[in-house]
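Handout for the seminar on molecular recognition.
Each group receives one record of this type.
Step one: identify the two inputs.
Step two: read the structure output and locate the region that could contact S-adenosylmethionine.
Step three: write two sentences on what you found, then compare them with the reference statements printed after the record.
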Amino acid sequence: MAFLDWLRRTPAPTPLEQRRQQYQHHAFDQTLDWDWWSMPFNRIALINLLVAGKPGCRYLEIGCDSNFTFHSVATPHKVGVDPARGGTVRKTSDEFFADNHESFDVIFIDGLHHYQQVRRDVANAVACLAPGGWVVLHDMLPRTWVEQHVPCIDPSMWTGDVWKVGFELVQSPGVDFRIFRIDCGVGVFRLSAPTVALADLRPELADKEFDHYFHNLHRLPLVSWEQGVTWMQQDG
Ligand SMILES: C[S@@+](CC[C@H](N)C(=O)[O-])C[C@H]1O[C@@H](n2cnc3c(N)ncnc32)[C@H](O)[C@@H]1O
């Protein structure tokens, strides 16, 4: 009887708790304490700074959702790609790039936050980047194992494993890359050579989890807002 009483009083785990339990074998107890929401700049400020430096800027956004960023980008020449909502083109990024013949001055990659997908988005973005153009990536700096976990555990705060592409970009000849320590980590790169070869770390990184990122974070080119803006103003 006492056991039945206890059972009745114990609340059932929420779907979020169930997912955390399901992936407990990936749990890692150390975290990063960046308080993104208290910081003064975000991805929109950064994208608009880049757009302002390109008169007549042609802007492409991959993954638009509610158009929070897309509607705030200050140029009339905008293409937004999302299979579900927002933007101007109802396709996946792979479908869009397969048919695309335009080039763009600023490309923001914020679609499906899976390493292999982001890798493809980066390669496709480089192929249609105008000379002197910029590529921006969102969600490069997860703070906890739950934030970076693939499959997604908590959709209210999910970076996925976009960070893996950061380790490739920093090792890619011809790519000048930084990660701004703002707004969940905003990666920015430009090309510093006529041809680039994206480093391929898939065999090493494919099954890595948060602990690998945490222990190797010092290898990523993190910058403050001020350091990043100074870098952007220098010639590539
Ligand atoms: C994090 S939200 C984008 C947020 C938006 N860029 C912003 O700054 O507010 C991710 C979006 O990517 C879209 N998405 C998912 N898979 C995609 C794919 N394969 N190609 C393009 N977009 C994708 C989702 O539908 C979702 O709207």
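Reference statements: The longest helix spans residues 115-127. The chain has one domain: 29-233.
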